[in-house]
Design a protein that fits this description.
Helix content is 31%, strand content 17%. The chain starts with a helix and ends with a helix. It contains 26 helices and 26 strands. The structure holds 1-deoxynojirimycin. The site of 1-deoxynojirimycin has 9 residues, from loops.
Length: 835
Amino acid sequence: MVDDRADETEGQHANTSRRTFLKATGAATATAGVGTGAVSAASEDREGKEGHTDIEAMLSELTLEQKVGQMTQVDVGTFDPDSTEIPDSFGVETLGEYFSELELGSIISGGASPPTFDAEETVMGINALQEYNLENSEHSIPFLWGVDALHGNTLLAGSTSFPQRINMGATRDIETIEDAARHTADSAAAMGAHWTFAPTTDLQRDPRWGRFYEGITEDPTYLGEVSKARVRGLESNDRLCSTVKHFGAYSIPENGNDRAHARTSMRDLRTSLLPPYRTALEAEPKTVMVNSGAVNGKPAHASEWLLTQMLRERYGFDGLVVSDYDDFYRMLSNHDYTDSFRRAVKEGLNAGVDMYMIGNGGEAPGPAEFIETTVSLVEDGEISMECLDESVRRVLELKAELGLFEEPTVDPSEIHSVLGGAQEESERLAEESMVLLKNEDALPLSGDENVLLTGPGYDPVLDIENRFLIRHGGWTLGWQGVQEGAPTEGGPRPRGETITEAVEGSLDGELTHVPTDFRAQPYNPETSDANGDFGFTDEQEEEVREAAGSADAVVVILGEGPHNEGFGDRDELALDPAQRELVAAIEEEAPDTPVVGVVLAGSPRGGAETFDSLDAVVFAGQPGSDGGRAVAGTLLGENNPSGKLAFNWPESVGKVPNNYDAYPPLDDQEPLYAFGHGLSYTDFEYSDLSVAPGSVSDPASTPTVTASVDVENTGDEAGEHIVEVYNTQSFGSVLQPNRRLLGYERVELGSGESATVELDLDLSALEVVPGDVPGILPKVVEAGEYELSVGEETTALTVEDAGSITDDRPAIGFDPDADGDDYSAVVEFLRGLGR
Ligand code: NOJ
C-alpha cells in the first residue's frame, strides 16, 4: 500500500510544497541520495523483514528537513494561535499544510480536547485528514495521532470516564485497573487514535500540586505495579501505544507549583522517585514522555543522565521518547536555563528526546522553526546525523509496529460498539474506591429517611446544575474538565448518572436537593486555591436551614472543582469558606441530625475544622461515570466501603510533605488519616500472622516471601476488605522509612466468616541505598530483622545477607575516568571522599 501511494504521489508535487517550506525556513539541505527518483526506486523495496515496512529504505528517501518533520508533533486543537476556539473539525483546509508542507510525524489532541466530541465526526475527520496526508505528502507516511485518554477514552461524548487515578489507588485492584485500561485502548483505537499519553507514573508526594489526582499513590512499589498493569492494558490493542510519563521525578515541584524545579537527592531518586517508572518499563511501553520540570538544577529535557544513561542504558528502554508540551521552549520560558531556542533544541535532542511536542503557538516556536533550527544544528555538526537517524527510525518503527502502513485509517463503525462500555469495571472501581474516613453511627442510611442533599453543584451564571464536573475531574472532554468547566445545558458529557439521580433512585424516603453555588473557573489563578468559586447565598441558606430542620439525615457534598496542571496548584487544603459556612449552618439548624460529608476532590481536601462537625465522611475522590451510583450505594449500604487511602491525609497544609514512608523522626507528623486508612460497615479481625520463609539468606535469589494471616469478619454485614502487610520497623546503615507496603489482597467475607489469606510480599520494597550521603552505592535489602505488621499483628522476617533485587549496580554518572566502568570510578570517588 505504501508503494502504491508513493508511486501515485511521485512527481505530483514537483516539490512545490517542499520548496514553499524551504523558502519559509531557509533550510535547503537534503540527505544523500534523496530525490523523487530515489523515492520510487527505494519504494519498490519497502516490504522488508517479517512483512514489515523497510524502515531503512524509507529513511534513506527522506531529506533532512523531512526527517525532522517526522520528529515533530503538533497539537491540532490549537492550530490557529490567535484563536482559543477548538476547531470544529479536523479541517483539511487548516491542517493540511502540516502534511503537504512539513510532512509532520504526528499530531495530537492534547488536553482530551479533540476538534469535536462527537464520535462519528471524530473518526471521519481523522480518517479524512490521514487520507489527505497520504495523498498530498511526498512520501505518504501516515501520521500518528496522540491523545490524552487518561482515565478512559474521555475525548468523546458518551464515553466511560473511569474513576480518576486518585481513586484507582484506593482500590488495590490491579486486575480491574488493567481491564479498564484495556477498554480505554479499544475505545481510543476505534476512535482512530494511535497513542495515549498514559499511564502517569509520577509518585504522589505533595497534595498542593495540581496533578496530585493523577498519581495513584505515594508508595513506589504499588505505583510501579499499577503502572505496569496499565501499560499492559493500554497496549493490549495492537493499534495503540502507551506512554510512561513524566520521566522522571516530575511530582515533587518546589512549593507544589507545577513545573517548578525539583530539589531531591540521589538516594531519594533511586529509592522512591525513579523505581515506579522502572517497574512500568518492564511491561515494555512503546513510548516515554519527559518531565516538564527540572531536577536538581537540570531541566529534565536537557538531562542526558535521565534520558539516556538512566532510561535507555540502565533501564533498557528502546522505544520512543517524546517531549512534553513545548518543553524545549520551556527551557527558556519557564526554567530560564537559556535564552536560545537553538541551544535548548540541541541539548534536548542530544540528551535523548526523539520527538518534539509542539503546543499552543503564542510565543513558543511552531513546527517550521523547530524544523529549521534542527536542520541547521545538524548541518553545523552540533547534532550528529546518526543521532537524528536513530530518532527518525524510532518514529517510523513505531508507525510500522502499530500497523499504520498497512491500515492507516479506521473503520468508522467500530467506535459505536465500544463507546461507553466496560460499565461493570467502571462501577467496580468506583465502588472499591470509596474510602470511609469517619463514621459515628451515621452510615449507612436505612433508605427510609427523608434526606437533605446539599453542597456545591449549581452554576449561578449558566443557571445549570454542574456537580458532575467535580465527579469527572480533569482530562474529561477538555483539559480542565468537561469543556473547560463551562458546560452548556445538555452539552456533551461522558456517560453517567449524577449523585442526585442515583440517591433519588435508591431512596424510599423523600429527597430534598439544594445545590449551592459553584463556578468552575479553571484558568483563574485567583480561585485556584479552592479550584473553583464557591458560594452560599442567603436564599440557599434559607432553603438549607428549612430542609435540614425537618430532615432525618443530611448529606453534604464538599470538595473542590475540576482542575489540571498549574491551574490546580493550591496553597490550602482546608475547604473553601462557603462550604464551611454551609456545614456550620446545618450544624446549627439540626444539631441532632446525622450529617454525612462526601468529599469530591482530587486531593485530601478538608480537615478537622470541617470534619469535626460531621458524623461521617466519605472520600469519593473523582469517581467518574459510575461515581453517582457508587456514592449513593455507599450512603445507602448497598456498597460496603472497602477503599483504603493510598496516601497520607495531612492534618493541614502546614504539615506538607507528610508522606507515609517518611524517615524518622515523625514527631508532630501524625496525619489526620494515614495511608491504608479506610473504614467499613462491618469489622475485621486478624490473627496468626506468619511469614515463610521466616529467614532469607539472599534477597537476590529469594525476592518474594509469603505472609499468611487469618481474617475474620466479626461484624454483622458482608464486606470486602483489603488485607495489607507493612514493614513497620527495621534498622540498617541508613535511615529506614517509617512504613513500607509489602503486599495487599482483597478478600470478601460474609458476616461471621473467616479465611486464611496468603500474600506475596515483594522484598524489593525493602531496598535502600546504603552508604554515606552521596547515595551512589548499589541498592540492597540490608541484612537484619524486619518487623512485619497486619493491623496489630506482627511477625519478623530475617534477612541474613544483604542482596540487590532490582539493580545491583551503583548510580550512573560517577565515571570521572570515562572508562565506562562506573564501579571502579565509584570506589575512587569514595576514596577521594575519605582523603
Ligand atoms: C502536557 C501534559 O504535561 C502532558 O501530561 C500531556 O500529555 C500533554 N500536555 C499533552 O496534552
